[in-house]
Each structure stands twice: as structure tokens, then as C-alpha cells.
Amino acid sequence: MSIFSFFFKRKPNNSKTLAQLLQELKRSSDFAAVEFQISGHDFSIFYFDSLIDPKLLQQQVLCHLQRDVPNFTTLSVRDFQRIIPVQRIEITSDVQTVETKLLKGFALICLKRDDRNWALINVASENLGLRQNNDSENEFSVVGPKVGFVENIGTNLHLLRRQINTTNLVFRELTIGTMSKTKVVIAYIDGIIDEQTLETVIQRVKDIEFDIVFDTSLLDQLLSDNSSSPFPSFVSTERVDRVVYALVGGQVAILADGSPYVITGPSTLFDFFTSPEDYYLPWVLGSFFRLIRMFGVMFSILASPIYVAVLTYHYEMIPKDLLGPIIFSRSNVPFPPTLEVLFLEITIELLREAGARLPTKVAQTLGIVGGIVIGQASVEAALTSNILLIIVSLAALASFTTPIFKMSNTIRFIRFPIILFASFWGGVGIAFAICLLLIHLGRLKSFGNPYLVPLYPLRVKDFADSFIRSSYRFTAKRPSYLRPQTFWRYDPNKAKQKKDIDE
């Protein structure tokens, strides 16, 4: 027997009883078990409240049971097909069928007198979470699904449960906030998640002492290993596919009622430069766009500081062909390069903040007209040079390539300290600032996991999905730094096999 057949061989469920299945499903907080009695007949109903339509369950099932069951002196499970006016009612004695149907939004009805047969009734909510107004507006991608989370946590759990169709998907419900009593759900896949990481997450959430929790952004700060760092410790996303990929990879997702964003962790620095679109494109294109994204971030951080350092201390680095245009561009500028750069950088930030606070149509006009008018007026008034205006504009444009908005804010912030280092010590100051930045990143952790992994500590095998997105033949194993209980996602040998219909 090969190693892959050992990992992927499914255990037979013939030995599993209904009681064992129900006990397994009760680990999840969205699994409901209701017991009641009608005219001496004992019933039990089991279902996932994140998958069913409660109105359909009440009107089409419970009401008819209460009204029609007293008419039967002897009741069997098959009588439910006459009592309940629902088209899809299935009578079964197979535990595997019960497991599959429950995860599809069916309700299981058990009659105490008949413990060998059970009724499965389709009360799934087909349209929940598929409305037109829950697109992922802030994490848009051209390719792939557009469905995003909403402010209702029940809808969000439904979206996750529909994508990950397994009993091992567990929702742990907690309540935090002394005044808000906010419902918080910790989602993970049992059998994949590292037990130590899970215990760390649950303990930190339980230890939160706060009055009102409005959004998961507050949880991001309260759960962070270092709340003083400008770098986000966890990925905050509104995309369903990103959270699904994180759960399957061995991470934990935290949802809060009233928040359309979900935080996932433990996260690394590379997670913030990964877009779901990378996995919907061929791996060559996905890797190319990811490298472009990382290059854009480095350019956004270092472009303005290098301009300050070169024009203040290192004139000899300027090529002769470029020296003339720079001298001509700055001949009438009365300010030193540092003030010139800070003036333009702050102007860009003011335009960006104003555009974020105004209505959409007004913000678009302000961004375009304001940028052109202020930039042209600054050059004509000799407050800045043409070359710097181009550099700052490109740096601002490059900062928008980051898929996660919180990391984009961090990039905008750390640019200013590096500019000050460059103005005091030139190129040595930039090198010193980068060293401080790397030391800080090396000390950061996310739920106890290193922030720079697989770069530091070095994990060569995990580079398959870091700087580049490798072919699916090389991404069959989950990241080792997450310490998953099951390393293999799928069999790479079978994944790359291609058979024609006549073979």
C-alpha cells in the first residue's frame, strides 16, 4: 500500500451508529437537537440551523405534526410522508445517508418507537446568502466567485457550511462583551487544525474583557500577540473563498455577529500579498501577478526615501543623463528634498482620506480632479519638482496593489519613518530602517506562530506557495508551520493524471 493510499483511503462508516453520528455533530454550535411529545408519541428533530429555513421548518413540518399526529393511534416513520406536505421526504436506515443529507440542509426526524428507520425532510434555505447586495466590494477579483460575508452571523455560517461539506467543520460559539453580549463563533476543521493552536485561540477569546464589540477589527487588536505593532496579526477578509481556503489549510476563522469581516489565523506576512485570484489563474500568471504585487509594495515603501537620500547625500549616484533634468526640475524649488517629499506625501494622504469619507461619485471626481489640479499647481508654483510628482504618484499607485486593506494602511504608515531616516543619514539611514523593520517582523507572532515563516524560520518546502504560486502538483501538502494533523490535501499523483474517455 502506497503512502498516498494510506492518507486518502476513506474509513468505512458502516460501523458508525446514529447515536455516534449525532454525538459527533453536537460538537458544532449550529447543530440543533429538539425533543418533544405529541399525543404520547416521542419525536426528535436534528438539523443545522445555519443551513435550514426556520420558517419552512415551522410551517411545513412542526405545525402539521402537531395538527395531524393525534389522528394516528399507531404511528410509524413512513406515516410522515402523508402528514408533512413536503415533496422531498426520504425514509432511510443508512447512517451515511443521514450524514450527507444533514449537511445539505435536511432535517432528521426520529420516532422513539421506530429506531431502525428515520425520515429526512428537505428544509434547506436555497437563497440564503446569495442575495445581490453581498458582493465582496473591497476585495474584488475579475475571476472567481463574488459572494462575500454579511452582517448576519447565521448567514455567514450558512455560506461556510455550504462550501465545506463535512461533519468535521466545527463551530464553537462564545459570547463576549459585558454590554453588547456579542455572539462570536470560532470555526475550524477537526482533524486538520493543530490542537495547541485551537486551544490558544479559544483561551484568548474567552479572556477578552471588553464592553462592546462592534466588529472583528476589535477582536483583531484584542487577540493580537503584539497590539503595538502597525502590522496586522491576522488576515481580515470579506471573501468566502479566502476563509474556506484558510480553514482547509489548517487555520482558524473567527466570526462576530454584526460584522461582515472574518479574521483568520495564524497568519504570515505572505498571506497579506496573496489574492484568491492567484488560484483561479494558471500558476504562471498567478505567480507573475504575485511577484508584481510584492515589487509594488517594495517600490511604494522605498521610492520616496531613496529620492531624499540621493538628492541630499549621494549626488554621485545620479547618472549624467539624468542629472540635467533633475537640476532643471528642482532649480526653482525653495525647499530641501525632505520637505518637498513630505508635502507631496501628506497631500496624497489627504486626497485619499477625503475620497474614502465622501460619497462614491463625489470621491471619484475629487480623486481625479484634485490630484491633477493640485499636482499641476504645485509644479507651476515651484513647490515641488516634476520628477518627484511622478515618483510619489507611482508609489501611491503601487500601495493599492495589496489585496488586504489593513496591510495597505501599514505600508502607507511605515513610509514616513523611513523618509525621516533617509533625511538624517541618507542611504545608511535607509539600510538601518530596513534592518529595524526586519528585526521587528522577525519578533512578531500570530497565535504563537512566527510572522515571517517560511522565510524565518526557514522552511524550504513551504516556499511552493509564498513568493510564487506553484502548480497544484506541488501544493498538495498543507503548510508545515501550521502543524496540521493531516498534511495532505489531495493525492498529487492522481491530480496530474489525464485520461481520455477511451482509456
In short:
By secondary structure, this protein is of the alpha+beta class.
Structure in words:
The protein is an alpha+beta fold. Helix content is 45%, strand content 13%. The strands form 3 sheets. The chain has a 5-stranded antiparallel beta sheet with strand order 1-2-4-5-3, with helices on both faces. Strands 6-7-9-10-8 form a 5-stranded antiparallel beta sheet, with helices on both faces. A hairpin with a 2-residue loop joins β1 (31-38) and β2. The longest helix has 39 residues, at 405-443. The two termini are 24 Å apart.
Topology (SSEs and partners):
Elements: H1 3-8, H2 18-25, E1 31-38, E2 41-48, H3 54-68, H4 80-83, E3 89-92, H5 95-102, E4 106-111, E5 114-122, H6 153-163, E6 169-176, E7 182-189, H7 195-206, H8 216-223, E8 235-237, H9 240-249, E9 252-256, E10 262-265, H10 277-280, H11 283-312, H12 320-330, H13 337-357, H14 360-380, H15 386-399, H16 405-443, E11 445-446, E12 449-450, H17 492-495
Antiparallel strand pairs: 1-2, 2-4, 3-5, 4-5, 6-7, 7-9, 8-10, 9-10, 11-12
Helix pairs in contact: 6-9, 11-15, 11-16, 13-14, 13-15, 13-16
Shape, principal axes of CA atoms? elongated
Strand content: 5-15%
- Number of helices, counting only DSSP H or I runs of 4 residues or more: 17
Compute the gyration radius: what is it? 29 Å
Mean pLDDT: 85
Number of strands: 12
Span of the ends, CA to CA: 24 Å
Largest sheet: 5 strands, antiparallel
Order of helices and strands: HHEEHHEHEEHEEHHEHEEHHHHHHHEEH
Strand order of the largest sheet: 1-2-4-5-3
Question: Which keywords apply here?
Answer:
503 residues; alpha+beta; five-stranded antiparallel beta sheet; disordered N terminus
